[in-house]
TrEMBL record:
Pathway: Pyrimidine metabolism; dTTP biosynthesis. The keyword GTP-binding does not apply. It comes from the Bacteria. Keywords: FAD, Flavoprotein, Methyltransferase, NADP, Nucleotide biosynthesis, Transferase. Belongs to the thymidylate synthase ThyX family. Homotetramer. The gene is thyX. GO terms for biological process: dTMP biosynthetic process; dTTP biosynthetic process; methylation. GO terms for molecular function: flavin adenine dinucleotide binding; NADPH binding; thymidylate synthase (FAD) activity; thymidylate synthase activity. FAD binds at T89, R112, H113, R114, E120, D211, L212, H213, H217. This is Flavin-dependent thymidylate synthase. PANTHER family: FLAVIN-DEPENDENT THYMIDYLATE SYNTHASE.
Amino acid sequence: MSLSPEQQAEIDELRANPQPTLRVVAPGMEGHLYKARPVLDHGFVRVVDYMGDDAAICQAARVSYGKGTKSVQNDEGLIRYLMRHWHSTPFEMCELKLHVKLPVFVARQWIRHRTANVNEYSARYSILDREFYIPAPEHINAQSVVNNQGRGDVLEGEEAARVLEILKADSARCYDNYQTLIDADGVGLARELARMNLPANIYTQWYWKVDLHNLFHFLRLRADAHAQYEIRVYAEAICEMVSDWVPAAYKAFEDYRMGSVTMSAQMVDCLRRMLKGETVTQENAGMSAREWREFQEVIA
């Protein structure tokens, strides 16, 4: 993990000078505040600020629904009801602001979640650090033969070594040329132009602020086993933070989103036929080969 000396000094000062507050405090999240969690080889995630807790979700729901929630006996039951029935607004009352350091190609996946506020490190004004994501040997995979956007078997031996050599050499060469382009004694090119020569595995940083409802949507997709490893490890780190911040909401999220499955009408029909003892195959199921494979994964 690579925090700059200035970032570390800021964190140390903030942690050394706690401030009294009248706002809601979540003890579990206080333990994460201003601490950088290492991710990948040079990346990190750290909590900069947060708002709300489990009680804030219930407070908002009871204002919205009034007498309609009086049959729910406790906050945890109410939160589970809200999650189960896809009520999103109460979860929007909680917010989280993160400082994230991540490879550019991961950032381009991440930014597709357009429901957050983002401010990214600017390579127009500043010079990017000489830090690149180089995957560990166990994460160098061949292309999947069944999924056009997935990984297949792990490469080994000379093949893996050759991939690593190419990645390291190309990264170093691109950064050397970047430095030459921006060096006043060299070309003196504008930084906004010189940056276009940098590879997608160089690290960038941003502040990312999102409400809990949209954060859960992000985590449902990116912490899933099918997500790309390099973004999944960031999502998994955030999951640990969120589980300490809003434990009741996170448990409901695990049960009704992460641990649940969605089936099409055809899948439900096939499952009912199977429960009746009927032999169901792809040919008589009315599904494509991919849909049938996904259905088999669900019921396995």
